[in-house]
């Protein structure tokens, strides 16, 4: 957070330090998702350029790594979309690595990870009821019988769990 303040104040030394600290991590993050050295290199560089250009609007309440990895993810998706469009208009085959399905897979995997983290952070009973219902397909009656609670209580736990997930997803989309 101190680093963000310094970067917002045009401190090139702090920016260089952040670059040294996170360059390899960003590269690895992108490489893991795309399996392309070209994309990983390009996205890494574009991320740090964007980070510097947008330094005035960085959030001083969030850690550097949170903002940097968020930017890297968005830059990666933007680049993949741009490449997919370019290949489409140049008449390249649909078997190129830059396809909409790759973008969808990356977005879905990230979204599933976020949802799984949210589920793990739920109160214990809410999480157990939600997992039994949604992951194992048990009915409200079966869950109620299993935990000696009413089906209405099961319904409330599931409703609260869904509301929690929706609220978090909504906050991410903003």
Secondary-structure topology with pairs:
Layout: H1 2-8, H2 12-34, H3 37-53, H4 64-90, H5 100-120, H6 124-134, H7 140-147, H8 151-173
In words, what does this structure look like?
The chain has a domain of 98 residues: Rna Polymerase Sigma Factor, Chain: A (Orthogonal Bundle). Helix content is 79%, strand content 0%. It is elongated. The protein is an all-alpha fold and 174 residues long. The two termini are 22 Å apart. Helix 4 runs antiparallel to helix 5, helix 6 crosses helix 8 and helix 7 packs across helix 8. It comes from Sphingobacterium alkalisoli. GO terms for molecular function: DNA binding; sigma factor activity. This is Sigma-70 family RNA polymerase sigma factor.
The value of Rg in angstroms is 21 Å
**Low-pLDDT ranges:** 92-98
CATH architecture of the domain at 1-98: Orthogonal Bundle
Mean model confidence by pLDDT: 83
CATH superfamily of the domain at 1-98: RNA polymerase sigma factor, region 2, helix turn helix motif
Which secondary-structure class do the elements indicate? mainly alpha
Percent strand equals: under 5%
Q: What sort of overall outline do the alpha carbons produce when their principal axes are compared?
A: elongated
CATH domain class name of the domain at 1-98: Mainly Alpha
Question: Which H/E pattern describes the elements?
Answer: HHHHHHHH
CATH topology description of the domain at 1-98: Rna Polymerase Sigma Factor, Chain: A
Major sheet description = none
Give the CA-CA distance, first to last residue.
22 Å
Q: Helix proportion of residues, in percent?
A: over 70%
Number of strands: 0
Oligomeric form = single chain
So how many helices?
A: 8
């Amino acid at each position: 957070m101190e680093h963000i303040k310094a970067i917002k104040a045009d401190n090139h030394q702090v920016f260089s330090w952040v670059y040294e600290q996170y360059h390899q991590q960003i590269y690895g993050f992108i490489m893991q998702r795309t399996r392309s050295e070209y994309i990983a290199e390009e996205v890494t560089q574009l991320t740090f350029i964007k980070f510097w250009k947008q330094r005035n609007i960085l959030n001083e309440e969030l850690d550097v790594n949170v903002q940097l990895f968020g930017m890297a993810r968005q830059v990666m998706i933007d680049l993949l979309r741009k490449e997919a469009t370019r290949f489409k208009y140049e008449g390249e085959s649909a078997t190129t690595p830059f396809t909409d399905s790759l973008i969808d897979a990356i977005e879905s995997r990230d979204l599933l990870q976020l949802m799984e983290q949210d589920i793990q952070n739920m109160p214990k009973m809410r999480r157990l009821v939600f997992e039994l219902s949604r992951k194992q397909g048990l009915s409200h009656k079966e869950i109620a019988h299993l935990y000696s609670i009413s089906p209405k209580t099961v319904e409330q736990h599931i409703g609260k769990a869904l509301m929690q997930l929706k609220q978090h997803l909504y906050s991410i989309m903003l």
